[in-house]
């Protein structure tokens, strides 16, 4: 099997994933998964598509993460891994889609408007 690449995005985070056959090692920006995401919850989020299909120890994953915060990065990585797994085996698409791992969460921060302190907040109005 050759190296399969996929991309995932969430908020302003971008994850580029390179998936190849191996022993289940996940490397993010040249660091181990546990070193890059110390939180067990974020590690769980990243591994969700692999656990769902039961292929945790079969693939090595190299990922480049850029932009955003740790939550957005972990969810972008989850999407990228799910997309790569579909490229490996198209029959897995239904299970991944049912769990929502193939849906790009398009919610981003609303822009700040001029003359206001934030996107929706207004300065206090004074009549007199």
Automatic annotation (TrEMBL):
- From which source organism is this entry? Prevotella jejuni
Q: Where is this region: Disordered?
A: 106-128
- Cellular component GO terms held in the UniProt record: cytosolic small ribosomal subunit
Pfam families the record matches:
Ribosomal_S9
What HAMAP family does UniProt report for this protein, alphabetically? Answer: Ribosomal_uS9_B (MF_00532_B)
Q: Its encoding gene is what?
A: rpsI
Q: Which InterPro entries match?
A: Ribosomal_Su5_D2-typ_SF, Ribosomal_uS9, Ribosomal_uS9_bac/plastid, Ribosomal_uS9_CS, Ribsml_uS5_D2-typ_fold_subgr
Superkingdom classification of source: Bacteria
Q: Name one GO molecular function term.
A: RNA binding
Supply the PANTHER family for this chain: RIBOSOMAL PROTEIN S9, SMALL RIBOSOMAL SUBUNIT PROTEIN US9M
- Residue ranges annotated as compositionally biased, kind Basic residues, are 119-128
Q: What's the protein here called?
A: Small ribosomal subunit protein uS9
**Gene3D superfamilies this protein is in?**
3.30.230.10
Keyword Ribonucleoprotein tagged? yes
A GO biological process held by the record: translation
């Amino acid at each position: 099997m050759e190296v399969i690449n996929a991309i995932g995005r969430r908020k302003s985070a971008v994850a580029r994933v390179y998936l190849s056959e191996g022993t289940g090692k996940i490397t993010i920006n040249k660091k181990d998964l546990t070193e890059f995401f110390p939180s067990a919850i974020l590690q769980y989020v990243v591994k969700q598509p692999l656990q769902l299909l039961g292929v945790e120890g079969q693939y090595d994953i190299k990922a480049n993460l850029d932009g955003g915060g740790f939550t957005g990065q972990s969810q972008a990585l989850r999407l990228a891994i799910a997309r790569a797994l579909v490229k490996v085996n198209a029959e897995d698409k239904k299970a991944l889609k049912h769990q929502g791992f193939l849906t790009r969460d398009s919610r981003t921060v609303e822009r700040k408007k001029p003359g206001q302190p934030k996107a929706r907040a207004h300065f206090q109005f004074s009549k007199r």
